[in-house]
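Entry for the shared binder. Reason: the reviewer on the internal report wants the predicted structure included alongside the sequence.
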Amino acid sequence: MKKSSIPQEPPRLRSFALLVVLCSFAVGILFFIFEHLLVILSADTILSPFVQNYRVWLLLAFSGVILFAVIRHYGGALKRDEETIAHLAHYDTVTRLPNRESFQGRLEQAIIDARRVGGEVEVSYLDLDRFRTIVRTLGLSVAQNLLCDVAERLSKAMGEGEFLAHAGGDEFMVLVFEGGAPDKAKGLASRLLESIRAPFVFDGQELHLAVSIGIAIYPHDGEDSEALLKNAYAAMNRAKEMGGNHYQFYFSDLSAYSTLTLLLENRLRRALEEEEFVPLYQPQVSLADGRITGMEVLVSWKHPAHPGVTPSEFIPLAEESGLIEPIGEWILRTACLQNRRWQLAGLPPLRVAVNVSARQFCRSNLVELVKEVLGVTGLEARWLALEITETVLMQDVEETINTLNGLKEIGVHVTVDDFGTGYSSLSYLKRFPIQTLKLDKSFVTGIPVDADATAITAAVIAMAHAMSLSVIAEGVEREEQWTYLVEKGCDEVQGYLVSRPLPAEQFAVFLRR
């Protein structure tokens, strides 16, 4: 990983001092020569006035040389300083890429040129997903070095007529002159996503990054640079809210959506205090005998003004704002307490699966928190499963292994969620003390008609069983999906074919049937 640096000016005083020394030495020699010439030419000749006043003439000559050297030195230094200041005003000191001001100037000129010929200009706004987690975990120095590597990869992905700049922080911008064609914009976005896909290596560890991209096109999405950047940024935020690692074109209703997002975030801060969150439980069923083996706890939000807000809308907001930590802890406590109450009521003991966010998993006290919750609620550790996404597990492999070992010691079951959507290495996967892989519903949706989805599903099931791991498929909604998963030896399923997520009272009724 390359080190970031601020451009340094080369030393100039050394050459100036050397010049002064040489001039002084030369003047000393001249003084010596003229002292001897004074004796020879002391007679009344045409040179005698000059010779007798030679010290004055030499001092004047020496002063002239020094003055010339000073003007030459500091005049050149001033010019170089002006060039350096101009460079720093238009380039980022960490990534060495053009900065926002430079990008703004290029964009304004591109719009002028496009307006004259009736052309189009494309702006892509990039933001690294979960980069704040890396800063908190590994420190600012590592983050800056990582930004340099990201900048280098993005630069290599640039094509003709494409201009890359660093907007600041973990954000980048790309300007495409004479752009605008959707297929061309998609191609650029795919290239940018692919350039970040491979892991970054730091101190022998692999760090996996992803990027969210928003795209706005002149003149359809804005007629000036400010509007284009604002709309590209709004589209980027929408891509991030949809899970990240994707691109999103701007559309006309997105500004209104962004306003609603801000209102929801403000309201989200009061939702816990006012008990607006409701836990829902979705059963997980064994394909071998059809019995219920567990349930995943999900959460809904009874927003008084917007009752239709979905988890896909407010969970990313909670992640971004940091509210996911208290919300996640509340879900963990509520689920464990409810599961224990069901057991005390005589219902068959089941394992409850709780999702763990990136922020929660990176906390140094996650294992202690789980211990404390289990102790307070009285739930045995074997009846709790933590679902952690593949992407989160791969952010810091060594720290992941330490945390997973801590959870294993207390007997908590660990499931890799959304398996197949990240970029994990099987060599690392074997090192993780995990018990279950949860096949992402994007693959389940396509079976059995989609050849790629069926091939991936079959391969994941076979690989997991070879590693002594169980497999649960989520998002099962059709009989033919159930049948195919049975044929391939999948262990468990979850989805609307079995049941939609249910409030605690209804789930208890479901269990008693």
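Summary line for the report: The chain has three domains: 13-90, 100-252, 264-512.
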